[in-house]
Amino acid sequence: MNDIRLTRAAKTAIRRNMKEMRFYTLTAATVLALAGCVQIAAPDKPIVINLNIKIEQEVVLRIEGAVKDAIEENSEIF
Amino acid sequence: MGKKWIEMAGAAILFGAATATAAVVSAQSSLADEYRSAKTSGLVGEKMDGYIEAVSAPSASIAALVSAINIKRKDVYFKVAQQTGSRPDEAAFTGGCTNINNTKPGEYYQTPGGNWTQRDGGAPQLNGRCPQ
């Protein structure tokens, strides 16, 4: 009786473990699949261009005042 | 006699310097005047890159005027770039935004599409990177 109970307990434990394993495998597979998708789908070119525009805009905003001053000081050629 | 000679030489040098300065000033003002009239008559326009260009096929004198103005502008942009730790083309581009903003109705400027447009009463069409 005790033995049977133990066996049953072992079975349940194994079943539980299997469930967990299945869950992890599924998760891992999903993550791998997603990682694969991102790698395939990510076009790096537009991202690079956007970054450049942002940097230039930051520079433009930063130096705008100095440029305006210089233009005013040299108004005969602007 | 010796002292007088020195005085006269000094006066002559001063006079020469004054004449030279006057000549430089008048050369500068004539370039500025030429530029003003070329601008208001629509012969030259403001580009997005901070420099001017002839709107249509230029005469020799307009071509010379355009390059004379642009050389001086380049100098100004280079100095600002040095002061601000930016690139000369960035300073020139920023200048282009200001220059196009400063055009008066009737004057020509380059649109973001690269075409010449006459400035009207409203706001000019500026490049997306210009401060809005």
Please describe what this structure looks like.
The complex is a heterodimer of chains A (78) and B (132). Chain A is mainly α and 78 residues long. Chain A folds into two domains: 1-42; 43-78. Chain A is 90% helix and 0% strand. Chain A has helices spanning 2-41, 44-73. Chain A starts with a helix and ends in a 5-residue tail after the last helix. The mean pLDDT of chain A is 73. Chain B is α+β, with helices and mostly antiparallel strands. Chain B has one domain. Helix content of chain B is 60%, strand content 9%. Chain B has helices spanning 2-40, 60-84, 88-102, and strands at residues 44-46, 52-54, 108-110, 116-118. In chain B, strands 2-1-3-4 form a four-stranded mixed β-sheet. In chain B, α1 packs across α2 (60-84) and α2 crosses α3. The model of chain B has no long low-confidence stretch (mean pLDDT 88). Chain A binds chain B through residues 53, 56-57, 59-64, 66-68, 70-71, 74, 76-78, and chain B through 28-29, 31-32, 35, 69, 72-73, 76-77, 79-81, 83-84, 86-87, 90-91, 93-95, 97-99, 102, 128-131.
Order of helices and strands of chain A: HH
SSE topology string of chain B: HEEHHEE
Considering DSSP H and I runs of 4 or more, what fraction of the residues of chain B is helical? 55-70%
Oligomer status: heterodimer
What is the strand content of chain B?
A: 5-15%
What is the CA-CA span between the terminal residues of chain B?
A: 71 Å
Helix/strand-derived category of chain B reads alpha+beta
Number of domains of chain B: 1
Short description:
In chain A, 90% of the residues lie in helices and 0% in strands.
Task: Show the helix and strand layout.
The complex is a heterodimer of chains A (78) and B (132).
Chain A: H1 2-41, H2 44-73
Chain B: H1 2-40, E1 44-46, E2 52-54, H2 60-84, H3 88-102, E3 108-110, E4 116-118
Parallel strand pairs in B: 1-3
Antiparallel strand pairs in B: 1-2, 3-4
Helix pairs in contact in B: 1-2, 2-3
Distinctive features:
heterodimer; A: 78 residues; mainly alpha; 2 helices; 90% helix; rod-shaped; B: 132 residues; alpha+beta; four-stranded mixed β-sheet; 3 helices; 4 strands; 9% strand
